[in-house]
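#lab-general

N.A. 3:47 PM
ok so I finally got the sequence cleaned up, no stray characters, all 585 residues accounted for. can someone with queue access submit it? mine expired

B.Y. 3:52 PM
send it over

N.A. 3:53 PM
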Amino acid sequence: MLTVSYAATSHSYINLIKNPGDIIIMHRLVIKQYNGRNQGCGYGATGFSAAVFSGVRLDPLTPFKSNTRCTFGDEELRVIERLREWYISPSCPVERENIQISSEQGGNEVNRTITSGIKRLDLLNGEEYCTIEGQIISIYNSVEIDNRIVLYIWDGPQSNNKQSTVFIGLPQDHLLQLLPYSQHDPHLAALTGHNLQQWNENIVKNYETYAEEDLDKVLESNFSSNSMETFRDWSVPISIYDEYAISEPIVNIKPGDLIRIHNVHVSCSRQKNDHSCGLQLRLHGNGHKFGRGIKYLGNKCLLMNYLNDTLFTSGDDANILDEANRYGLLDSLKRGINLRPPLLKPKCELLPYELQYPLTISQIRNIPVIVNEKQRQLSDWDLLYPIQTEFAPSIPPDSWLTCTDLLISESYLNVVYTRLCARVVDIAPLDVKALKDCLLLTCSNCSFSIRGSSISDDDEALCECGSCLSILPLFFLHLEDPSGNLILTVTGHNVISLINSLVDDDLRPCINNDTWWTGLIFEMKELQNIGISPDKIVLEQCRRLLGQWIDVAVKISWSKKSIPGTTNTENDNDLQFHINDWDFV
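B.Y. 4:20 PM
back already:
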């Protein structure tokens, strides 16, 4: 590398240089020593002259217009061609992006022509600068701590040939610290498995501990190379620094928005106690001269309209769609959505307006406090027990529905409905003993009920009225998203819907047969035929639930006896969460 200085009479050559990457030919350059280093000096008195060429590979081999004259020949032009090729090659260590910047460009909103195209996230390599695009899953605001915002984005499914790629984001303790200042799209977080990477890896490594020894052969097939795709985290973190973190468009973007980020620095980094190399993505500050920047491509509705083949009536809308899908982003996101459908999904046309969009688990846990606060406003409780009810991020006011038409058996409860998207990280039952505990034998006539594990051989008459008994399955799902976790109770026909989403077509008639479920509780006493035993079928499907995600309407209930506004939302004994099927409401 050589530093070149110009005399006052030669400053006009500097004005010819427009962008990083431009190429300059210099004649009669004087080489001197300064502080032990070589330095080039251009003096007009010695006949110094120069010509500046564009560094863009496809531009003409003609210099920028100048009032001075500099001669050059075919050999110099061949050198310029080689330098242009080298500048866009991976061997060039200089921070650059192969772009042409529009003369109308201004601010942080990027308006440029990309000659090198977009690079997919799963094809990134260490030590390069490139342009990426994707849909925002989560936003972690860390400006007050280290002057940055961390975005988690995805651009579609990761290709199978890059399964070992690891992207390094924020440490888990830092993520927890930023949770109050984070925003998430629950649907995208569940679909991509965002922030569940550590659980995903552990569940795959230790899955044998979740089943009895005689079930290993039945369950092991569920972790084939194809189904392992379910456990991969598709979210990719990128740190946005300095002026980009506090200016447009970052300050107004939301989870679900589509963005394009120019000149991202991809570096290779090793984590502590780990010999493998992970990739870190950063958008550094002070980078306008390098063409850095963020371009807003559209909101989530744009993608939804594309998925639903909605026709765009105006030319502006069509142009926005074309720009967002210019490099196939919408097509790639569509493939990812189709590859990972939820196991359960409500019929949106049956849902009330308040349940059209899901909340995070943290927001759902705080709904009872807000409901209780409204009750406090009608009483004097606020004077006796003042509480703070401001949450960050805030909870949209029209995102849950209060139930006022309660059964007599529920009159002592507060009940609301909302919508939840989350991943299943654990489930009960997962073994035969737990399955017996999760099957209730009930009588609709006399309200008699007994757990399957409590039935003995001498139980000749299980209820006094002698009516027809039926089975009530009672399953528990441990759900998790980036903001927290909860235990969701699934009963009756919702259990059947859950199992039906997993079993083969030839088994669905059995699952939908009440007699099959009633007989199941008695067949568990004899396990001679493990391969076809109904309890084994049920446990196999339960095991397949791990790592999957669901999109469901949820019924939240808690006792009215608690002091309004002081409900302990971390206590699952106080808060109860149940799947609610609007087909049966």
